[in-house]
Amino acid sequence: MSEQVPPPEDRWPEGRPPPSSQPGSPSGAQQPQPLSPDQERLWAMLAHLLAFVAAYIALGFIAPLIVMLVFGPRSAYVRAHAVEALNFNLTWLIYAIVAGVLAILVIGIPILIVLGIAYVVLVIIAAVRANNGQHYRYPLTIRFVK
Description:
By secondary structure, the chain is mainly alpha-helical. The chain has helices at residues 37-49, 51-55, 62-71, 76-102, 108-131.
């Protein structure tokens, strides 16, 4: 008296086949939906601006990295801005570490001040350009990620 279990296709709601049998979808993985132009501009801008949140504890590169990993596959525009912001924040972190070491010689203190002002100005310029739909490349940035 064993009860027969219906095949998996019969157990999916609304008569839909299971994800693994949907056409064009290898092993059930669905492709992410592309972002709308407004969403692209928003996330590109946030890739630059969210770095401010963590920059105070020298982790400004975390936000652009997350934006790149989450939204980069959905939009080449967002990925380009997130990569640029990531490279900029990593480069500026290196500059700040060098300036911090040079602070022992007193020359590092004015360098840290200039770096801080330049950081704020450049991030604002990049965020505005991203929101306007334009690409922006930070000056004096080492390209770690391509």
